[in-house]
Specification:
The protein has a single domain (23-152), classed as YehR-like fold. Helix content is 33%, strand content 40%. By secondary structure, it is α+β, with helices and mostly antiparallel strands. It is built from 5 helices and 7 strands, in the order H-E-E-E-H-H-E-E-E-H-H-E. The protein is globular. A 7-stranded antiparallel sheet has the order 4-5-6-3-2-1-7.
Length: 153
């Protein structure tokens, strides 16, 4: 009986260790900036499993706060529309929201890293993302060096 109990405890310990190793974690990094009458906020959320990047979401919200700059809202939108075409292909999607009353322009990029093709990633400027080898901690350190505030959830 003692032999069975030890075997059970050993299996339980292995199961718990393996279970802990497969935990999903999320890294959320936020950057805020004010420049030339505009407020920028960028939030990057990255989901990791076994320290491997699985999904990434990048939300950039730009709000024009200066009344003189607001007068050029149409030109700003036209420029942004040229730079940010809506996109939905092979695990990568880019959506755009505009709010003319609040002078806000928001882009949301969603990437399913496992299912995204290199071509789709390259079209959005993320070529090499799948093979970067960056871990949650290395991405956190890099983002914080660049002035972001990061939190692991």
């Amino acid at each position: 009986m003692k032999k069975i109990s030890m075997l059970f405890l050993s299996l339980l310990a292995v199961t718990l260790m393996v279970g802990c190793g497969t935990k999903t974690k999320k890294l959320v990094c936020t950057t805020k900036e004010t420049e030339d009458g505009m407020d920028f906020e960028q939030v990057i959320s990255m989901t990791y499993k076994n320290d491997k990047l699985k999904t990434m979401k990048v939300v950039v919200n730009t709000k024009i706060t200066d009344s003189d700059v607001q007068k050029n809202w149409q030109e700003f939108k036209e420029y942004m529309e040229k730079e940010n075409k809506e996109f939905n292909k092979d695990g990568v999607s880019l959506k755009v929201e505009e709010n003319d009353k609040k002078y806000e322009y928001k882009t949301t990029l969603d990437i399913d890293v496992e299912n995204a093709t290199e071509e789709a990633l390259k079209e959005q400027g993320f070529d090499g993302l799948k093979d970067s080898g960056n871990t949650l901690e290395s991405n956190k350190e890099e983002a914080e060096k660049d002035g972001a505030t990061c939190e692991i959830k």
